[in-house]
Design goal:
Helix content is 60%, strand content 14%. By secondary structure, it is an alpha+beta fold. The strands form two sheets. It has a two-stranded antiparallel ribbon with strand order 1-2. It has a two-stranded antiparallel ribbon with strand order 3-4. The chain is elongated.
């Protein structure tokens, strides 16, 4: 085997290994995002899919951290002998995606982005509300003062901290 053939073989091996690492990192990201896909408001959740999503939520941190370490170690091993194309197009993205997947396991999007309570809601008159006649609301009346909370909004926040008739109330859905 000539030196040129050996170099070509090594380059092909680096590209194949880099491609495999990139695929594994994309699979790790899919694992991290799976619970977010399954557990969405206003969508029917099948019991089996919900059970799998909750299992992933409970166990994904060590799995994704281990995958990140494995991908990073393998990528750094290949990095030393790979050219700039595999480094730029395969190895760097593989490590970045694996890191994003590991970080995503520690972020709770439901509490931090989607289902945060309304602390101080703004109110408009019924004429300004723009609520369709078919929209469902949670209505609260206390001491002659009334408020309506659209289910469309409550589905994402689940909790409204409010004051009605000078008393603090919590509305939940």
């Amino acid at each position: 085997m000539t030196e040129g053939q050996r170099g070509t073989r090594t380059s092909v091996q680096n590209i194949v290994l880099g491609s495999c690492l990139l695929l594994v990192s994309v699979a790790a990201l899919a694992l991290a995002l799976f619970p977010i896909y399954v557990i969405r408001p206003f969508r029917e959740q099948k019991p089996a899919a919900l059970q799998h999503a909750l299992w992933v939520t409970l166990h994904d941190k060590p799995i994704l951290f281990g995958l990140f370490l494995l991908i990073a170690i393998c990528a750094l091993f290949v990095w030393r002998r790979a050219g700039w194309v595999p480094r730029l197009l395969l190895l760097a993205p593989a490590m970045t995606i694996a890191l994003l997947a590991a970080v995503a396991a520690w972020v709770n999007p439901y509490e931090q982005m989607m289902f945060h309570p309304f602390g101080e809601p703004r109110y408009v008159t019924i004429q300004q509300a723009g609520i369709d006649a078919k929209d469902m609301v949670i209505a609260v009346t206390l001491g002659g003062e009334s408020r309506a909370y659209p289910i469309r909004e409550m589905g994402y926040h689940h909790v409204v901290n409010d004051r009605l008739h000078q008393l603090p109330i919590v509305v939940t859905y």
